[in-house]
Amino acid sequence: MARKSYQEKLTELREDVLYMSEVVMERLRMGLDALEQKDEDLAQEVIEGDGEINRMYLDLEQDCIDLLALQQPVASDLRFIAASFKIITDLERIADLATNLGEYTMDAERDLFPDVDVQEMGELTLDMLEDAMMAYDTEDTDRCRELAGRDDDLDEFAERASEIVVRDLIERELDSTEEVERILQDVSRLLLTIRDLERVGDHTVNIAARTLYMVENDDELIY
Amino acid sequence: MTNEQMTSSETEPTDDQPAPTPGTDGLTDTADSGGETTTDRTLLEARDLNVYYGEEQALSDVDIEIPEKQVTAVIGPSGCGKSTFLRCINRMNDLVDSARVEGELRFDGKNVYDDDVDPVALRRKIGMVFQSPNPFPKSIRDNVAYGLKVQGKDDGDVDAKVRTALERAALLEEVEDQLDASGLDLSGGQQQRLCIARAIAPDPDVILMDEPASALDPVATSKIEDLIEDLAEEYTVVIVTHNMQQAARISDKTAVFLTGGELVEFDDTDKIFENPEHERVEDYITGKFG
């Protein structure tokens, strides 16, 4: 095989990006579990684990820079490295959002808004992320295009959930200043949770968009 | 001077290196000085190295420490002295009447310009591959065996050594059934790998390469580049190239020579190509100068 060590480095990059995505998915799962179970220890673990993800990101960023500077990649190799360079940024941002879930857990009240199923929304985003990384791994462009449609569903879900929270807030009769304060904080956290999960979906579509560009040189999903 | 007349009394260990094993040719045997893994042990070292061709200075106060079993690339514009430096290492400049060398060039701690060093013996330990493939008009087998016979390593097991050298040079698979065919019948890339096999047959410590791929097409160049990286597992490779991208791709360390035979920067290759210390090096590698 021509340029053997270069090809090996490309393979390593792909494997390392996939590994990073597995760790990020695990953190997102832990963040959702912490939120659901009010598990502050688990939430703390997610928060403290963010540094590891940041180091992974910086290492992979350096790997991409080295490949660009030293190997002069062209054509599909260039697109693969450029796409990976962007995808690790999205993964790092998803990990930040998982960390947010941990932080919300640390001070959230529970079950004030039972009609908003944050866990269902979380499951949708996790499934999307898993599929996006599978598309990257297997260069499955059909899956990339399908993910964009699923993100529209997620956006609608987020919009409906936000409406429920706001409507409930308006209709709720609050007797004391303390109660107002408490529920406002909780509403704020819940809306932020919905927004963060919606953003995970956006980053997932970014990953699909870069994968589509990587495989087909098609920028249709990049916006 | 014959090998027997040479002494090794001037071979001295440096502070951080073990005492080398004395040889009969003024040089030392580095075979047991390290494993087959990459090390940072210095094998070649220049100190205040100056080279003149008549009145013209070709190298100016060069200080460098080249690590063992790594690929060191030497780059720079035409006339910067990079080939002169390479040829100093195995005293090929001795063949140029007007050349004068000052300073020290140490190979495993021993100055190769000491009076007791036999240049022919030195070149057994420091082989060289040139720009244009230059196989002899002999069979493939004899081309490789030549290196063993001339260099006194023909101990009767030539065929096995020929095959090993061809295998290390990533050529055996392609020529296995035609070892008696002429080396000149091979393609340019194969001829160059044959020359590499010839150079490594006597099992040297260092392989010097002077633009080894510049006369080859991209596919043959790729094979040579892969081979160079593989060779660095067993040998110390110093390669002169005018192709900066090639240096970036295959080397661990890069030395940048600029005008006047000045070694401006020597560092890890990724450092040189991502964040060089010197503005002149930045200008050269980005194409603003040279």
Automatic annotation (TrEMBL), chain A:
It comes from the Archaea. It comes from Natrinema thermotolerans. It holds the Pfam family PhoU. One of its GO terms (cellular component) is cytoplasm. InterPro entries: PhoU, PhoU-like_sf, PhoU_dom. It is found in: Cytoplasm. This is Phosphate-specific transport system accessory protein PhoU. One of its GO terms (biological process) is negative regulation of phosphate metabolic process. Belongs to the PhoU family. Plays a role in the regulation of phosphate uptake. The keyword Transcription regulation does not apply. The keyword Transport applies. Residues 20-104, 118-210 form the PhoU domain. Keywords: Cytoplasm, Phosphate transport, Transport. Gene3D superfamilies: Phosphate transport system protein phou homolog 2, domain 2. Homodimer.
UniProtKB/TrEMBL annotation, chain B:
Residues 1-11 have a biased composition (Polar residues). Pfam families: ABC_tran (PF00005). Residues 44-285 form the ABC transporter domain. The keyword Transport applies. GO terms for molecular function: ATP binding; ATP hydrolysis activity; phosphate transmembrane transporter activity. GO terms for cellular component: membrane. Transmembrane segments: none annotated. GO terms for biological process: phosphate ion transmembrane transport. Residues 1-41 are annotated as: Disordered. Keywords: ATP-binding, Cell membrane, Membrane, Nucleotide-binding, Transport. The keyword Nucleotide-binding applies. This is Phosphate ABC transporter ATP-binding protein PstB. It comes from Natrinema thermotolerans. The gene is pstB.
